[in-house]
Amino acid sequence: MTRTLITGGLVITAADEVHADVLIAHGRVVALAAPGTQEWTADRVIDASQKYVIPGGVDAHTHMELPFGGTFASDTFETGTRAAAWGGTTTIVDFAVQSKGQALRAGLDAWMEKADGNCAIDYAFHMIMSDVNEATLREMPKLVEIGVSSFKLFMAYPGVFYSDDGQILRAMQVAGDTGGLIMMHAENGIAIDVLVEQALARGETDPRYHGEVRKALLEAEATHRAIQLARVAGSPLYVVHVSAEEAVAELAAARDLGLPVFGETCPQYLFLSTDNLAEPDFAGAKYVCSTPLRPKEHQAALWRGLRTDDLQVVSTDHCPFCFTGQKELGRGDFSKIPNGLPGVENRMDLLHQAVVDGHISRRRWIEIACASPARMFGLYPRKGTIAPGSDADVVIYDPHATQVLSAGTHHMNVDYSAYEGRTVTGQVETVLSRGEVVVDQRKYAGHAGHGAFLPRGLCQYLG
């Protein structure tokens, strides 16, 4: 293995900003030192003058190759992890899916097979539980032992992923006993299905009605219910893709009580809105995801939640479907539009734009995009920081470059960009994954199979 020296950059972690040289060997960060104070030798020297040196991003919510609504997410583990690397993300935590009537382990094995040998960056898995029963509850501690320590449940999608309150409580009880973390899709799916049926009966079929039937109050109600069930079970709770001001308020109230309740939001809720869902000629279908995009006024509450730590993590919920042939399945019936947006390549840049715009600080950028997801899911300090002993997942980031986000230039395997034409300040220049260069001066140098499976520990926010 080569020794790499990164010189002249501003090293930014969640805790610190310091001008330092970074020495890398055997895939790990070996040492940091004030510029020029150490006479280190290296096989490769990267000049990071006028640049940021930041930890590789940790995207804790992706769905590569996810089967949904009669089709599959358009990014494979190969294309999706390559796009992630281009965007400065060096670790993903994807979701293995349990099929109804099957064991959890069978779902995990199927997803391990999809990813094995195909990933450009390191990866881990959460487990989607779509059939909570005595057998699967018994499996949960075994998965925790092998490094799959988080379990996703759905209060939405009746007949597909939905779990009722009793099933949720039982899974939470096991998680509380074993140190596992329950991740919750918090929307009242039973009520939403009634509203969907009524909207379609009225002839309201356009994409914008997807947002109108999935009411913010039904996200808030489900968030409140999930919190109370977790309290009864003595379990921690992580609510995924929080989009509504009222849901943030439920999380904040729980955290004010000192409860181990955590929240994640996504760039689409911070930068997009129902205005996009209402775009004409069915273009709004590009923006159909669940929880849905909200009116713009919800964005201020999400940014505030990120600043006050009532929301700890920004992940993408990357689940791309091409407009042509996939999103179009829902022409004439918004409920048949595959749910999901592409974004794994854009997250680090959009959040840097939030720094430029004054929403968050530079250290908070690194915290919500790198350190907090690594801590939340048992990967810190191996991932999420730049420190002696950490994996050498390092990004040289040019904070002065500008770029225009576009499907014409992105590397995700999808035919549109949710941020088409948006100019952002800041761009990834060079990316190292465990000391190996995967993006070199804006040229791809990685390969499928470099990425390794990461067994995870327990959530590091719990005493």
Explained architecture:
This protein is α/β, with parallel strands linked by helices and 463 residues long. 30% of the residues lie in helices and 23% in strands. The chain has 13 helices and 19 strands. The chain has helices at 77-86, 104-115, 134-145, 165-178, 189-201, 208-213, 216-233, 245-256, 267-271, 274-277, 299-308, 347-356, 362-376; strands spanning 4-12, 17-25, 28-33, 44-47, 52-55, 57-62, 67-68, 71-72, 89-97, 122-128, 150-154, 181-185, 237-239, 261-265, 313-314, 394-404, 423-433, 436-440, 443-444. Strands 1, 2, 3, 4, 5, 16, 17, 18 and 19 form a 9-stranded mixed beta sheet that branches. It has an 8-stranded parallel beta sheet with strand order 6-9-10-11-12-13-14-15. Helix 3 (134-145) runs parallel beside helix 4 and helix 7 (216-233) packs parallel to helix 8. The longest helix has 18 residues, at 216-233. It is globular and about 70 Å long.
Work out the helicity level: 25-40%
Mean pLDDT: 97
| Residue runs with pLDDT of under 50 for 5 or more positions | none
Rg? 21 Å
Number of strands: 19
Strand content: 15-25%
Shape: globular
Tally of helical runs? 13
Main β-sheet description: 9 strands, mixed
N/C terminus separation: 38 Å
Structural class: alpha/beta
Summarize this structure briefly:
The chain is an alpha/beta fold. It is 30% helix and 23% strand. The chain has helices at residues 77-86, 104-115, 134-145, 165-178, 189-201, 208-213, 216-233, 245-256, 267-271, 274-277, 299-308, 347-356, 362-376, and strands spanning 4-12, 17-25, 28-33, 44-47, 52-55, 57-62, 67-68, 71-72, 89-97, 122-128, 150-154, 181-185, 237-239, 261-265, 313-314, 394-404, 423-433, 436-440, 443-444.
